[in-house]
Amino acid sequence: MINRLRQFYRAYTATMSGADFEFTQAWLSEKELSVFFRMSIIDQKHCVNVARTAEKLSIGMNIDKKLLMRAALLHDCGRKKGDLGIIGKSYAVLFDKFLGYKFFLKLNFASRYKALHNAYRLIEVYYRHPERSADNLRRINCSPAIVQIVLSHHKSAATNDCQELILLRRADALN
What we know:
Layout: H1 2-12, H2 18-27, H3 30-36, H4 41-57, H5 65-74, H6 85-98, H7 100-106, H8 114-139, H9 144-152, H10 163-174
Helix pairs in contact: 4-5, 4-10, 5-9, 5-10, 6-8, 8-9
């Protein structure tokens, strides 16, 4: 609960500094930057924080740092400006906490009704952003390794997960 309150506060006060822009530009290609900047400032800042945390967690490890940084900076690019916002994400988090993904799957009919469409869409973006992110990255011919890490970042851990994915999950959970 404390972590969620901290996340809300960080989202509410999110701004991208000059150092954040420099950090992002140091790791991403022009095409990747165009995808990154389609995200809201809240998600951009979150991804920068995740990347910086992942960088700290990886100190002394034998990993592909470029792969980790690019995946961390792009892992939520399936959420673009206007998709969720701070209030929408809060609703989606509460929905997930109290009702969960299985209940969401039963709500597919709700997308057809105008009164429920917006609420359904918020929750859909929340749950399906890894797939949307992977699609965005495939469109710009991003490396398959990054696409796979981004696609898997909310899936349950598997024994064959690469170290970069494991670090991304840990850093994401901390931010």
